[in-house]
Amino acid sequence: MEEQLRDFVLDSLGTNTKKMNELVNSTAKKLAKKDENLEDMVLAMKKEIEELKRELMIYKATLSNGMLSSRPKQQAMDVSKLEKFKGARSTRDVGNFLWEMDELMLQISDLNEKRTFYWFVDGLNPWEKHELLRQGIIELTVAMSKIKSFVELGLMNDKFESSKPNGKSNGERNHEKMKRGIVMMATVLIT
């Protein structure tokens, strides 16, 4: 009887152990899947944060150049007076009028974009302006992103031993000019 009881208890424990192991394994798989989902969500949020940081940089650059703080002056537009309505009009006249107004509106919005770009460029260093002109950049958002990648390089005499006189010269070189320093400016586009 004792032996039967022991066998029964061992069988029960073996079955329970098997069920517990299956439960632990399934729970571990579910947790691993949730962990992967969380990692994907974190990566997506990091990308969104980077994009928001880039937008913030553009807004800060816009504010620092005073583009949003100063309102552009309203331009006086030459609008011809309309003739007095004499009855019926042809659809061609109406169509031409609508086409002219459409073209005029396109010019006005384009003018504001160009003015904003030139305000931005006006706040840059001369060498940065030259580099934008050299690359043919005429859009504000492209210019703002490119300006961050420009680097000013310069050679300084006190940093390089090769520019100092070594005393082996026959005296014909002008070492005073080298002592004053020659600064070379260059721009490098970092890709």
Describe this protein's structure.
It is built from 5 helices and 2 strands. It is 62% helix and 4% strand. The longest helix has 63 residues, at 2-64. Mean pLDDT is 73; it is low at 177-191. Strands 1-2 form a two-stranded antiparallel ribbon. It has 191 residues and is mainly α. The protein starts with a helix and ends with a strand. Keywords: Coiled coil.
Beta-strand share of residues: under 5%
SSE ordering? HHHHEHE
Main β sheet profile: 2 strands, antiparallel
The shape, in one word, is elongated
- Assign the structural class, choosing from mainly alpha, mainly beta, alpha/beta, alpha+beta, or little secondary structure: mainly alpha
The overall pLDDT average reads 73
Number of strands: 2
* Strand order across the largest sheet: 1-2
Helical segment count? 5
Helix content: 55-70%
Which residue ranges are poorly predicted, with pLDDT under 50 across at least 5 consecutive positions? 177-191
The value of Rg in angstroms is 37 Å
N/C terminus separation: 84 Å
Write the topology of this structure.
Layout: H1 2-64, H2 91-122, H3 126-135, H4 140-147, E1 150-153, H5 175-180, E2 186-189
Question: What is the compact description of this entry?
Answer:
The chain has 191 residues and is mostly helical. Helix content is 62%, strand content 4%.
